[in-house]
Amino acid sequence: MTSSYFYLIIFAVVSYLIVTDQSIAKLIVLLSYLIKFQYEKWRWIISHHPKTPWARFAMWRRSNQLAKELMKEIEEKNR
Q1: Taken in order 45, 46, 47, 48, is the CA torsion positive or negative?
Q2: Contacts of 50 (CB under 8 A, 6+ apart)
Q3: Distance CA 75, CA 79 (A)
Q4: Which of 15, 29, 45, 78 has the fewest CB atoms within 10 Å, i.e. is most exposed?
Q5: What is the pTM of this model?
Q6: What is the pLDDT, as a whole number, of residue 70?
Q7: Cβ neighbours for 66, distance < 8 A, ≥ 6 positions apart
Q8: Cβ pair 54, 47 in contact under 8 A
C-alpha cells in the first residue's frame, strides 16, 4: 500500500509539472517519441540482423526460391 501512494505522489507531481510548464510537456512528448524510436530500432535489428534465426531462415528461403527460378530458366533455354 505504501508503494501505491509513492507512485500516486510521483504521478501527481509529474502531472502538475506538465500542466504548469509547457517545456516539461514538450519533454514528455519528445521522450515518448524517443522511446518509440528506440523500440522500432531494436525491433528492426532483431528481425533483420543476419545472426538471428528468423533473418537466416528468410535469406535461405529467398535464396532457394531464386535458385529454383534460375534452374527453371536454364532448363527452358537448354530445350
Answers
A1: positive
A2: 56, 59
A3: 6
A4: 78
A5: 0.56
A6: 95
A7: none
A8: yes
